[in-house]
Structure formats: structure tokens, C-alpha cells
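Hi V.,

You were right to ask for the full record rather than a summary. Here it is.
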Amino acid sequence: MDDIQGLDDVLTDQAKQKKMETFQKDILFAGDEAVYRNGNKIKSGTKFLICGTVLAPDCFISKLIRDKTYKSIVKRAVLVDDIDALFTNEYWSSFRDLYYDNKNQYAEIDAKNFYYENEDEMKFPVLWEDKWHPIEIALKYYSDPIGFKQEMMNDSTILTGGKCFFAVKTIPRTEMDDIDFDRSIMTVDCAVEVGKRNDYTSICVGSRGINGHRYIRKGLLMKVDFDTYVKKVIGLLKEFPELTHIIIEKNTYQGVDAKEIQKKIDEDQQLSNRNITIVNERQMKNKENRIRAMSGKINNGFIIFAKEDEDFYNQILEYQGSDIGHDDAADTVSEFDSRIDEIEIRKEIKSIPRGWLF
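Predicted structure:
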């Protein structure tokens, strides 16, 4: 049985249980027991070889590893105890910053030169030295820590709590104003209550640069009433005239806020002349998986924050799971990241002089 379980098999407790029951009640009974006659084995029993990746602490593969009935071999690509500590230490953090410097056209060369200049301090043991180079391993980790820890380290802890954001890249907001963007949207996650222990209303104004990088031009965390929240959205639409879409989670106000914002837009002479689309949908996806899926983009600086929004990105750095602390900022940024490439931009149709055709 090769690669017997996938992500769909660990999303719920029922899915995990179903995978185990299928193995125990169906697959195992397809095999034969060994046959002995007069103390001699005359027919071997069926042998099951199961290859797979650990995807959760209680997934099918994890349960088999803990079951003493089975012999198990667990291998990890990098032979260190804490892969996160390794790639966030002083040397590898400097390498990451050099490699993902979007302003330096020689970023890759400079980063590799930095590694070879400090190879004695940066090299680490791997399972197959002739197959994996430390730089290649590091780039795989920075690109997708979740996938790396699953596929390369057989480590499921990143899916079940714990930090997944270790660094954010920031630049001054005034510096962002000089960047060429090809699309800009606003994502909103509302909260009703405003008590100390309640969630925040989070608003993220983000743009995509022509190089594909994401820029969080303004990140807000607020505890405000309904009217103040609507007023803030309208104010941001005026502050950022290039905004074309507002993505609002429907779960909280059931669409009432989207209707009120649309009403305010229609009544405003400045905003009513713009093509602003409001998308108001229920959030059905697993929030924690969605947030952790963007960890590589934030850790390697592909998603860049305004330096002034310290409270906003610090909440992301503190994220350890949906059941610990707040996930408001991370939620709106992940929604922005997943939506920005998909939105359709309606461009103004311009006519040409009739004489140009003749």
C-alpha cells in the first residue's frame, strides 16, 4: 500500500476512523495466515508493506507506528531535532533575507555566496548527502513549511498547533506607494462583540505587485460597533482609490453589513462612479489549514507588510492555532492571498477615433 492516505483522510475524526476501519475490516482479511503442518511452515502468510506520510498525530500511519503488532521504520530528511530552530537561526535567517530580497536582481547569487562563505556554520546533516544539498533543503522549507515537515520530516505538529510564522518582512508604507500594483482588494473579518476577550474586526488592504509579491498596505485590528466598522470600510475605499473588490465573510452579520456598505457606496458621488464589487460569502474551508498554508509565503517575505502596522503583523507572528489567542489578522491575510490572483478586473473600454480605421 503506497501513499495510502491523503489530506482528505485527516480533515475530520470520521475520515481518520474510516481509513483505519477500511484497513482492519477489508484489507487485512484479503490476506492469508501462514499454514503449518507437523510443526513446519508449508505456506507463508501474506505480508503487508505500507508506505505513507505522517499527516496528523492520530492519522492512519501514526496509529500503525504506535501499534507494536507492526514493525515500523521512520526516516527524516534532515537529522536535527528542531527544524524550525535550524532555519530561523542567525545564519539561515540572513540567507533567507538575501534570497527573497525582491529589490535585488542578484539576490539568488548573493544568498548562495553567503552560504558558501559561512558553510561551516550553516551545513547540517541530511539523510542522503549525495541527494540533498543544504540550500535546496532550505528553499523547500521556506517555500512550504507544512508540506516540508509532512513529506520530508514525517512531522505532523505544524497541523496541530504550535507556531508556524517566524518572521515577517516589512517596509515603510510610503515605500509601498512607489510600487507598481496590478490589482488591489480589501478583505474583512467582522466581530460583533467588543469585549477584551472577544475577537477583533480585522481589515486587510492588499495589492499584488507586477512581480507577483503581495503587499499588505494597511492592516487594521479594531473593536468597534457596526456603524463604525462600516464607516471605516468606506473611508478606506476613498483612501485607496485603486480598490476594486471587498471580500466580506458572511458568517457574522449574515450579509447585513455588505448591504449597508453597498448602500453607502451608491449614495456617495465619488464611490458610485467606481466599479467596486462586494463578495459576501460564508467561510466553509478549514480556517487553520488555510492560514498555515500561507506560512511559507510570510516567512520567506513573499507577503510584505507595512512597517507601521505592528499590532497587525505581531498578531500573525503570535498565531499558534485557532484555539489559542486570536487569528483575525491571519484570517484576513490568508483570504487576501487566496483571492488576489482569482479576481476579475473590469477595465474601462476606450474607443478609438473613427479615422484610424481608414
